[in-house]
Structure of Glycerophosphodiester phosphodiesterase:
Amino acid sequence: MTKIYGHRGSKGEYPENTLLSFQKALNDEVEGLELDVHMTRDGEIVVIHDETLDRTTDGSGYIKDLELGYIKTVSAGSKFDHFENYHSSWDNEKVPTLEEVLQLITGKNIELNIELKTSIITYSGLEEKLLSIVNRWNSDAKIVYSSFHLPSLVRLKNTDPSVNIAWLLHAPISNPKDYIETFELEALHVEKDLILSSLYNPFHTVSEYVRVWTVNEEDEMKKLIDLGVNSIITDYPQKAVNVRIK
């Protein structure tokens, strides 16, 4: 069965990468959650997509230059007041730490995809810090670490050979199975057009190892489910769950 992952929670309808958004996806009975992490100046791991606060919060500045104390004072929900479901309570949503998300999913049968945003900024010690936090929580969830930046995944694997790593791709590669075996990848996370563009592209030969992002249209969801991909990562998890039932 193709699994459904909530992209930054329920990004299409709720403020992305917030506990509110993750809880909505959990309520929709997804099999997985996808989130993004950066590291603060004081070495804390926070869940936010961009390198800066500016787009998704009412604060500003690079995460790497800010301490958690300040980041926790800004609203991670007020910028989404144009959403149909907006409620004034969203203004109280904060940028969560990774530990807060791990607490949210404690005891739940869920997969958690932690994306390391290290393509632009390489955070010294991020990989070790991540593993320390996850191991400390000893979560029942299956944890998958992904990144566009392959060296981050290699460092994770070198630190702990048992971790699940997945390489994010928005460009074709030759012989994907060779990459999977050589780098001991648990999966490839592939941009949707790479696998939908042709019935004869190489990703179809490893569909059971492929999670596809970001899939928001029903017809594309149906095609990918028919192809037997491992998972669909979507901004609209409720829609995807309903499509899979049909």
About this structure: The chain has a mean pLDDT of 96. The chain has one domain: 3-49+96-245. The two ends are 13 Å apart (CA to CA). DSSP finds nine helices and nine strands in the chain.
